[in-house]
């Protein structure tokens, strides 16, 4: 899967930056024309940033001295909007904090909810995800109480975008569907489009490509130019996202068509330069994959130049990785290494760990001599990322829970004197409801984590196999060198014997016969030495090939050391593992892991037998135990059994499960091999 994280980050906040801050017209500011004048000047594109900030500050100074009424709050939000558009985050936060405090003091729930949304936008821009999530969640709750379905759905969508950016895809998906349910009977084409677009992006990340295409098509169909202005370039954005799905499917001809359609949208390069740059890069990459040379590498360079001018570091990273791949395919190793190293350096500088993984992976491919170093760092960073991702989802659920708890405590303090029994009953029911929801969501997160971990484990295993093969190749090469040196040394001895024998031809006495016999004995000794050395080297070479068997044996040894069950394993020595594809070996290894884990957790078996043999053009893996067994027809298929079925299907194999309660279990897997 391409490194699309940077693209999505921009796309998800695209609508916030553009649709946010629609100006609210004042109804009566006849006595405050100076405010309108200053706010207008603060929005003037031709003025310098410093001047615009000065005018905005003057407007703020006038508004802050006025009564705390609805007009004052509207004007404060207008001041905040201008700070937002100027990227003056200090002024933006200060203004929003003032309007939030004023709204709270006057118990103005509508503007409190709006201010919470603005605060969420601030912390989101600063990449402080937990604070952003807390404020979005607060605004969501308030709009729900106000029955403002449009803004309620908008708050849910803001939360979904944040959850996606933190790689909490399942929670993001749930939030989007909640938003869609809220606006089911509302006229909200903009939210409908953003929801479908985000769902398409989520399913693309989860490799559910059919669903991704379905929702991107829905997004395209829902674009209403009367609601979403043309300058937002929604169509170009969706066409780019659709193309990315087909890129991940390696259907580059279809991807190319979508990217070309996206680039054909009017005024794209001026209205949404970052979308234009993405389309250029993606089009170039698909043309490269289709072996089309027209426009290459110029399209890559054009996109890189534009992204560099916009300061889009993640986009620059991906451009350089694509250029590295392109030059590697052209056998220009110098440029390929140059762009990969530049990409890795940029990702380290910006502390983007996912991009660091991409840079290390590319360098391991084009610099095989250093692949072991790159692979070790890749595995270390990948393990750290897995641990971090595991904590992110929990962080958001904890914020929701704690925010709910605070709100419940405030409600309790104001109502406890009226009806204590009612409050305690309500809190108990709410606690039970929260517990049920959290339990279900925890199960969903666990399933998602295991799926992600499985993909990472496969990649790590591939790297491990590659590293072992490299090490063993070097060992074999070294032993061949040693064999040649031994052989040459022995030949030297033989040459000396031959010279001595020739010299004896000139001697015709009694000692000549004895000397000839001695030299013949020496020749036989040398011949035996050569034969033993050659046999030993050939035998060790064949043993080194079977490193996969060693990996399986290590798994079995760990099982024997950790669990009480007696394990008997039989592996057919006639299987030529060097001819079996890595994909089949990886899946067989994972199937063995899952089977042993299931036996250890549920079977309570005393004896386990595992047999791996070859019959004609098939590999047969048979795993049996004398545990408690189960009813195959009625038993639920947990994630372990699903993984075994999935991996067997990946190998085009078949699974046969025989089990009865109290009679143990036999699982037979048959996989075709060439």
Would you kindly provide a written description of the structure presented here, covering whatever features stand out?
Its EC number is 2.7.13.3. It catalyses: ATP + protein L-histidine = ADP + protein N-phospho-L-histidine. The chain crosses the membrane at residues 420-437. This protein is mainly α and 674 residues long. It has a domain at 561-672: Heat Shock Protein 90 (2-Layer Sandwich), CATH 3.30.565. The protein has helices at residues 5-19, 33-42, 49-64, 70-85, 89-105, 109-125, 129-145, 149-165, 169-182, 189-205, 209-221, 234-248, 252-263, 268-271, 273-289, 298-310, 313-329, 333-349, 353-366, 371-415, 420-504, 510-545, 547-562, 582-603, 639-650, and strands at residues 566-571, 607-615, 618-625, 654-659, 665-672. The protein has a 5-stranded mixed β-sheet with strand order 1-2-3-5-4, covered by helices on one side. Helix 24 links the parallel strand 1 (566-571) and strand 2 (607-615). Helix 8 packs antiparallel against helix 9 and helix 24 (582-603) runs antiparallel to helix 25 (639-650). The longest helix is centred in the C-terminal third of the chain and has 85 residues, at 420-504. The chain is extended and about 135 Å long.
Task: Give the total of beta strands.
Answer: 5
Cα separation of the termini: 28 Å
The CATH superfamily of the domain at 561-672 bears the name Histidine kinase-like ATPase, C-terminal domain
What order do the SSEs take from the amino end to the carboxyl end, as H and E? HHHHHHHHHHHHHHHHHHHHHHHEHEEHEE
- The overall average pLDDT, rounded, is 80
Count of separate DSSP helical elements = 25
Query: Under the CATH scheme, which architecture of the domain at 561-672 would be assigned?
Result: 2-Layer Sandwich
Strand content: 5-15%
Please identify the structural class as seen in this structure. mainly alpha
- Across the major sheet, the strand order is 1-2-3-5-4
The radius of gyration computed from the alpha-carbon positions, rounded to a whole number of angstroms, is: 35 Å
As residue ranges, the low-confidence spans are 1-31, 406-414, 540-545
- Helicity range: over 70%
**CATH C-level class of the domain at 561-672:** Alpha Beta
Examine the coordinates and then state which fold CATH places here, giving the name of the CATH topology of the domain at 561-672.
Answer: Heat Shock Protein 90
Principal-axes shape call: extended
Describe the biggest sheet? Answer: 5 strands, mixed
């Amino acid at each position: 899967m391409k490194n699309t994280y940077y693209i999505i980050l921009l796309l998800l906040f695209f609508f916030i930056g553009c649709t946010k801050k629609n100006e609210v017209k004042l109804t009566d500011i006849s006595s405050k024309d100076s405010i309108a004048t200053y706010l207008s000047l603060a929005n003037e594109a031709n003025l310098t940033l410093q001047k615009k900030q000065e005018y905005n500050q003057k407007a703020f100074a006038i508004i802050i001295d006025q009564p705390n009424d609805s007009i004052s709050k509207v004007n404060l939000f207008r001041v905040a909007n201008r700070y937002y558009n100027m990227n003056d985050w200090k002024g933006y936060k200060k203004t929003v904090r003032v309007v939030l405090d004023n709204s709270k003091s006057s118990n103005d729930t509508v503007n409190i909810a709006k201010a919470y949304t603005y605060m969420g936008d601030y912390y989101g821009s600063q990449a402080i995800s937990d604070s952003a999530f807390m404020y979005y969640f607060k605004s969501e709750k308030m709009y729900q109480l106000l029955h403002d379905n449009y803004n309620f759905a908008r708050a849910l969508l803001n939360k979904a975008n944040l959850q996606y950016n933190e790689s909490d895809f399942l929670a993001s998906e749930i939030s989007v569907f909640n938003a869609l349910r809220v606006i089911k009977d509302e006229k909200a084409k903009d939210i409908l489009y953003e929801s479908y677009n985000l769902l398409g992006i989520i399913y693309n990340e989860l490799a559910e490509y059919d669903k991704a295409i379905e929702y991107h098509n829905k997004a395209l169909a829902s674009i209403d130019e009367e609601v979403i202005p043309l300058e937002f370039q929604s169509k170009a954005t969706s066409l780019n996202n659709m193309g990315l799905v087909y890129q991940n499917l390696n259907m580059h001809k279809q991807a190319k068509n979508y990217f070309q359609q996206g680039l054909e949208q009017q005024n794209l390069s001026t209205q949404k330069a970052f979308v234009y740059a993405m389309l250029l890069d993606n089009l170039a990459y698909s043309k490269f994959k289709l072996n089309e040379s027209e426009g290459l590498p110029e399209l890559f360079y054009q996109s890189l130049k534009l992204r560099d001018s916009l300061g889009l570091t993640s986009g620059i990273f991906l451009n350089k990785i694509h250029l590295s791949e392109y030059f590697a395919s052209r056998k220009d190793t110098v440029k390929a290494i140059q762009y990969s190293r530049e990409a890795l350096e940029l990702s380290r500088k910006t502390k983007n760990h996912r991009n660091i993984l991409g840079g290390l992976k590319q360098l391991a491919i084009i610099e095989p001599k250093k692949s072991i170093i790159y692979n070790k760092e890749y595995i270390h960073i990948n393990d750290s990322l897995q641990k971090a991702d595991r904590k992110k989802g929990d962080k958001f659920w904890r914020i929701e829970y704690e925010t709910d708890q605070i709100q419940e405590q405030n409600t309790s303090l104001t109502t406890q004197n009226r009806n204590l029994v009612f409050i305690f009953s309500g809190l108990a029911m709410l606690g039970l409801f929260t517990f049920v929801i959290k339990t279900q969501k925890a199960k969903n997160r666990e399933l998602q984590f295991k799926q992600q971990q499985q993909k990472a484990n496969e990649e790590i295993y591939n790297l491990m196999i590659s590293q072992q093969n490299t090490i063993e190749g070097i060992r074999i090469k070294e032993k061949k060198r040693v064999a040649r040196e031994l052989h040459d040394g022995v030949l030297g001895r033989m040459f000396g014997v031959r010279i001595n024998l020739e010299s004896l031809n000139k001697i015709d006495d009694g000692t000549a016969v004895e000397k000839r016999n001695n030299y013949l004995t020496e020749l036989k000794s040398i011949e035996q030495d050569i034969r033993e050395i050659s046999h030993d080297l050939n035998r060790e070479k064949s043993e080194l090939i079977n490193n996969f068997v060693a990996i399986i044996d290590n798994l079995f040894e760990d099982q024997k050391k950790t669990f009480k069950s007696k394990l008997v394993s039989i592996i057919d020595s006639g299987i030529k593992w060097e001819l079996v594809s890595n994909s089949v070996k990886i899946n067989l290894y994972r199937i063995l892991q899952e089977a042993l884990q299931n036996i250890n957790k549920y079977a309570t078996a005393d004896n386990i037998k595992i047999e791996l043999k070859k019959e004609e053009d098939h590999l047969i893996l048979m795993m049996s135990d004398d545990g408690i067994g189960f009813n195959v027809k009625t038993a639920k298929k947990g994630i372990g059994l699903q993984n075994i079925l999935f991996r067997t299907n990946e190998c085009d194999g078949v699974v046969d499960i025989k089990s009865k309660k109290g009679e143990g279990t036999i699982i037979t897997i048959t996989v075709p091999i060439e």
